[in-house]
């Protein structure tokens, strides 16, 4: 009897049966299609790696906050901001990123370089997963569209080079959501549900938003299985999905609650709590900036495809896939509205759309699913033509922001004359800190406290006990009410002076201290900075430092008091 091999898989909106006995040459066509997929994957990875190299730099300042905690962990001091500090403060956002970066530090390597390599691998994993079908979309042209959108996403390439956990979290969010929705769309398999749940658990200890994403996707997936054919999901299957997540996240949550004593990380209280909705307009403004290049195209295309799809689908799998795409898109929009609620992000410190980035691939997934389903009813257009059109439209939508990131990353002047490739390769492996850390080490003792308005590179490079004046790493400041609109505006000048730091850095040009310019002309806008400078002017214990290698204002405690 002839050997009959058949398989049924989701194409996004319909189920296709392959029968090697009835489809002549299907095996060779299958191998040819996979060869094309591999070639496309190699080409997309090459493009993405080139973008990563062009966008590389010295990392963002906030990434070094994580590295300071990781350095203390690797040195046997625990996850601490200042060695021996009690009570401990949770001034980092990503627990897993701290642990991962402690490994290269313990081995004598650079955490920034390790973070770049790990982030590139995470982004590459998204491309591989899109092409391999680890999500509900199974038609190869539409999988290729999704992979192309990921590879051409300039902000994704940019944030692989910042040293932050953003891309790593994005990859975990994509992998866990894609696997979960693929299983919910058909007959859930316990092994894959457990794998998805485990990835959700890792996402939740990478960033707190992972808990919200798990809840949104779980609710979306469970609500799908209410048809007469499928019935409700069984308790046993549900247990396979939720058990690994809660085993990971609850263990971590109970530890951090006992260790730090607060429900949320200290960074949340420093940035977002106590603002009495002052920052809501900032969140709306952040959404508008993200909407134009990144959200308008996929949301518009998805809405048009939804309207173009008949309301009554005869195929049950088509109805389920349509519902799945709408739920996924809704989950992404809820996530974006949460970003608006907390006030958005500081784009001067974090260019482009850092907070939106983790759900962008998921939003594209929902858009591609909707357009793929609608294209079945567009008889004059082939699926491949629709796929190319979608990729082109969404890619053009973020071209402006992407070009700005590239322009800001290309060296100018003398650096460009050395050769772009050589310069970028040097930047990729470099961990620049500038002259200020060396100056601080020269003018302080190991036990001297410094007070800074940026808690990243300088505290990491000097290792000095540090007072974070913006409260990210200080519980007292973090729990104060906000005095004005903005991110990182909580300050307590009197508290800072009471701590008697040896050096105080105020993020205002020293021309204001010398009364040569106005506060605004000196780059000042925070109420706390103005109050702190006025107190320091009147204080008999501090002098303005003229020889510091920085344009911002530096004050040093007088030696007589120090002795």
TrEMBL record:
The residues forming a coiled coil are none
Major localization class: membrane
Its Gene Ontology biological processes? lipopolysaccharide biosynthetic process
Return the GO cellular component terms, semicolon-separated: plasma membrane
Indicate how the chain sits in the lipid bilayer.
Answer: Multi-pass membrane protein
Q: Where are the transmembrane segments?
A: 32-56, 91-110, 117-135, 141-159, 166-185, 191-217, 238-255, 284-309, 321-343, 355-374
Top-level lineage group: Bacteria
Query: Is Methyltransferase among this UniProt entry's keywords?
Result: no
Which InterPro entries does the entry link to? LipidA_mod_glycosyltrf_83
Q: Where in the cell is it found?
A: Cell membrane
Which UniProt keywords are listed?
A: Cell membrane, Glycosyltransferase, Membrane, Transferase, Transmembrane, Transmembrane helix
MF terms (GO), sorted A to Z = pentosyltransferase activity
Name of the protein described by the UniProt record? Membrane protein
């Amino acid at each position: 009897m002839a050997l009959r091999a058949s398989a049924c898989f989701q194409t996004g909106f319909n189920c296709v049966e392959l029968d090697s006995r009835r489809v002549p040459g299907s095996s060779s066509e299958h191998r040819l299609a996979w060869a094309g997929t591999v070639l496309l994957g190699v080409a997309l990875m090459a493009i993405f790696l080139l973008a990563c190299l062009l966008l590389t730099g010295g990392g963002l300042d906030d990434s070094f906050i994580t590295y300071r905690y990781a350095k203390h962990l690797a040195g046997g001091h625990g996850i601490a901001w200042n060695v021996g500090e009690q009570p401990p403060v949770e001034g980092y956002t990503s627990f897993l990123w701290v642990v991962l970066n402690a490994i290269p530090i313990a081995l004598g390597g650079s955490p920034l370089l390790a973070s770049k390599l790990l982030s590139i691998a995470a982004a590459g994993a998204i491309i591989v997963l899109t092409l391999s079908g680890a999500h509900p979309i199974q038609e190869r042209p539409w999988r290729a569209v999704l992979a192309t959108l990921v590879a051409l996403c300039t902000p994704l390439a940019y944030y692989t080079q910042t040293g932050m956990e953003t891309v790593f979290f994005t990859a975990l969010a994509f992998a866990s959501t894609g696997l979960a929705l693929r299983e919910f769309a058909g007959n859930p398999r316990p092994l894959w549900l457990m794998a998805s749940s485990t990835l959700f658990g890792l996402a939740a200890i990478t960033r707190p938003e992972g808990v919200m994403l798990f809840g949104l996707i779980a609710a979306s997936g469970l609500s799908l299985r209410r048809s007469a054919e499928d019935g409700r999901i069984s308790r046993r299957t549900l247990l396979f999905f939720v058990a690994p997540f809660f085993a990971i996240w609850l263990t971590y949550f109970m530890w951090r609650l006992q260790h730090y004593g607060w429900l949320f990380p200290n960074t949340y209280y420093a940035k977002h709590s106590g603002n009495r909705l002052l920052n809501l307009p900032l969140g709306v403004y952040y959404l508008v900036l993200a909407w134009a290049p990144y959200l308008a195209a996929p949301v518009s295309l998805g809405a048009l495809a939804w309207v173009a799809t008949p309301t009554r689908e005869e195929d049950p799998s088509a109805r389920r896939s349509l519902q799945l795409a709408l739920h996924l898109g809704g989950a992404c929009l809820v996530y974006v509205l949460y970003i608006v609620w907390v006030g958005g992000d500081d784009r001067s410190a974090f260019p482009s759309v850092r907070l939106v980035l983790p759900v962008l691939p998921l939003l594209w997934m929902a858009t591609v699913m909707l357009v793929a389903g609608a294209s079945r009813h567009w008889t004059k257009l082939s699926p491949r033509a629709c796929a190319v059109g979608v990729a082109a439209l969404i890619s053009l939508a973020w071209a402006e922001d992407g070009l700005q990131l590239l322009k800001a990353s290309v060296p100018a002047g003398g650096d460009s004359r050395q050769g772009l490739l050589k310069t970028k390769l040097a930047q990729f492996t470099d961990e620049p800190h500038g002259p200020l850390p060396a100056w601080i080490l020269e003018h302080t003792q190991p036990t001297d406290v410094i007070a800074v308005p940026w808690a990243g590179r300088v505290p990491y490079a000097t290792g000095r006990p540090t007072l974070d004046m913006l409260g990210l790493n200080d519980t007292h400041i973090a729990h104060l009410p906000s005095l004005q609109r903005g991110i990182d505006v909580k300050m307590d000048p009197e508290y800072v002076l009471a701590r008697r730091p040896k050096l105080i850095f105020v993020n205002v040009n020293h021309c204001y201290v010398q009364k040569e310019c106005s506060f605004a002309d000196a780059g000042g806008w925070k109420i706390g900075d103005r109050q702190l400078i006025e107190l320091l002017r009147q204080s008999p214990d501090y002098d303005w430092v003229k020889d510091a290698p920085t344009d911002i204002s530096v004050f040093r405690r007088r030696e007589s008091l120090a002795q």
